[in-house]
């Protein structure tokens, strides 16, 4: 019963937040801070409905001194709500082009200045990547990427795709990994308290002076650090 009620509330909230977000986007289209505001719009009510307790330790993310590429693990569609409260100012996201067909959310995503990539068209995808490099270097804007490319459903991290690391190296900006504990398998949405979630940002990893030849090592370094962080947070939650 509680699960059904929550899903009904979440569905209504998703529609209402989409309407408000589209209005915000139309009032100031493609403003890079729209993403942060819309993320809060989705996340704050959702966490209250779901009764998920999120503890975030993201000082390196909040206090970043320059544009950066933010990489995070991707478990489920709930990530929109879980990560929403830690998206920093002037941060846009990269998503697949098919998102634009999602009613309200797709239009909101586009108007918020996020980048839609057609993964089936290599030329258009490369052009979009070049645009993001310019954004990172000249527009005081960071880019949030899920380097796994798809949801891992609470299992170990999937192999990382190259795009985020190519952008960071090309622009010469640091990478900030953001990790969320394994929550998708432990949520109990039919209970009043649905579960605890930890979010942690790791120290920035510089890319200045790196070339594309250094990319495999950089990817391995980021993935190793993130998996270790996720494992540590999961152990903390098991003890608590």
TrEMBL record:
It is an enzyme of class 2 (transferase). Its EC number is 2.3.1.51. InterPro entries: AGP_acyltrans, Plipid/glycerol_acylTrfase. SUPFAM superfamilies: Glycerol-3-phosphate (1)-acyltransferase (SSF69593). Keywords: Acyltransferase, Lipid biosynthesis, Lipid metabolism, Membrane, Phospholipid biosynthesis, Phospholipid metabolism, Transferase, Transmembrane, Transmembrane helix. Pathway: Phospholipid metabolism; CDP-diacylglycerol biosynthesis; CDP-diacylglycerol from sn-glycerol 3-phosphate: step 2/3; Lipid metabolism. The chain crosses the membrane at residues 164-184. It comes from the Bacteria. Residues 68-183 form the Phospholipid/glycerol acyltransferase domain. GO terms for molecular function: 1-acylglycerol-3-phosphate O-acyltransferase activity. It catalyses: a 1-acyl-sn-glycero-3-phosphate + an acyl-CoA = a 1,2-diacyl-sn-glycero-3-phosphate + CoA. The HXXXXD motif is essential for acyltransferase activity and may constitute the binding site for the phosphate moiety of the glycerol-3-phosphate. Belongs to the 1-acyl-sn-glycerol-3-phosphate acyltransferase family. This is 1-acyl-sn-glycerol-3-phosphate acyltransferase. It comes from Pseudomonas canavaninivorans.
């Amino acid at each position: 019963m509680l699960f059904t009620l929550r899903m009904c509330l979440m569905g209504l909230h998703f529609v209402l937040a989409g309407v408000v977000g589209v209005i915000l986007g139309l009032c100031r289209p493609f403003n890079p801070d729209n993403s942060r505001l819309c993320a809060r719009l989705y996340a704050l009510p959702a966490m209250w409905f779901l009764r998920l307790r999120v503890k975030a330790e993201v000082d390196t993310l909040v206090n970043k001194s320059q544009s950066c590429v933010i990489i995070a693990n991707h478990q489920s569609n709930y990530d929109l709500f879980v990560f929403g409260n830690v998206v920093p100012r002037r941060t846009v996201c990269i998503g697949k082009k098919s998102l634009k067909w999602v009613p309200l959310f797709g239009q909101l995503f586009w108007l918020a200045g996020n980048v839609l990539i057609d993964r089936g068209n290599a030329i258009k995808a490369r052009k979009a990547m070049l645009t993001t490099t310019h954004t990172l270097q000249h527009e005081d804007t960071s880019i949030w990427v899920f380097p796994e490319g798809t949801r891992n459903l609470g299992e170990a991290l999937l192999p990382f795709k190259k795009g985020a690391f190519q952008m960071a190296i090309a622009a010469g900006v640091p990478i900030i990994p953001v990790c969320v504990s394994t929550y998708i398998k432990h949520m109990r949405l039919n209970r009043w308290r649905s579960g605890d979630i930890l979010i942690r940002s790791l120290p920035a990893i510089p890319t200045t002076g790196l070339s594309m030849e250094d990319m495999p090592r950089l990817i391995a370094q980021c993935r190793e650090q993130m998996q270790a962080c996720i494992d540590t947070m999961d152990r903390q939650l098991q003890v608590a």
